[in-house]
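User: hey, got a sec? need Flagellar biosynthesis protein FlgC folded
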Amino acid sequence: MSILSIATSGLSAASLRVNVAASNIANINTTGPLPVSGGSSTSASSGIAPTYPAAYVPLRVNQVSQSSGSAPGGTIATVSAVSPSYTAQSDPSAPFANQDGLVAAPNVDLASEFVELATAKYSFIANAKVIQAYAETEDTLLDIKT
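Assistant: Yep! Here you go:
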């Protein structure tokens, strides 16, 4: 795998980290009804009850070294759901709160999300510098005069 391929895989992973962290931060207050044991959302006991969307399911990036193939190198980043995806939070004023006044809130740790953003920033900068150094070195080699 070439230097450029390795660095661009790092840029791609950093970009994915930013997107996932931004989505988690933007949806930190997107609550929903607490799921019941069957996996469906709780509803009122009346025959026709309004349905409410589920709470936002936070995501995380799993990044591993690309070690397969004839020329290993670089990184692979995939997205998966955080488990458990929600925590019970008190919000008795919500129309979908259960009898105890609880709703499902996304299991997002704001401090961890800001750490993810900082990590992605510095990873992106480092990989961009690798590409810049490679380009400068290549230009220098092409400018050699005899």
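Quick note: Strands lie at 59-65, 75-81, 86-90, 102-106. Let me know if you need anything else on Flagellar biosynthesis protein FlgC.
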